[in-house]
Amino acid sequence: QVQVVESGGGSVQAGGSLRLSCAFSGLRFNYYAMAWFRQGAGKEREFVAGVPWSGANRNYADSVKGRFTISRINANNTVSLQMNSLKQEDTAVYYCAADLFGLGREDDHLYDYWGQGTQVTVSS
Fold first, then answer.
1. What confidence score (pLDDT) does residue 55 get?
2. What residues are paired with 118 via a beta bridge?
3. Cα-flanking dihedrals φ and ψ of residue 50, to 5°?
4. Per-residue pLDDT reduced to its tens digit, 1-33
C-alpha cells in the first residue's frame, strides 16, 4: 500500500522562503517521476515543478522559474520543493505526485499517487 506524507508549508510574508517535503513508502521510488502541483482558491490545479524518474531535466512552470527548486533524494524516498522569493500569488494548496517511469510533465492525469496537500499562504 502506497503512503504519501507531506510536510512543510505554512504562512510567510512576501519575499520569504518555505520548503515542502513529501515522503513516499510502498513503492519503488526511484522508478517514479515526482512533481508538485498547486491549487489556489477558486482556481484549477496547476503544475509547478517536476523531475523525471532519471533525475535529469527538471521542469518548471514559467511563474516559478528561478524561484523554486524541486529535488529528489532516492535514498530517503523523498521529494522536496524549495520556494524562495515567495509572492502572494503563490498562495495555494500544494500537492506532490508520482508517475511511474514518467518525465515530470505538466499533465496531472499522468500521475498515479498524490499527497494530501499542504497549505501555503503568502501575505503582503
1. 83
2. 94
3. -145, 150
4. 999 999 999 999 999 999 999 999 999 999 999
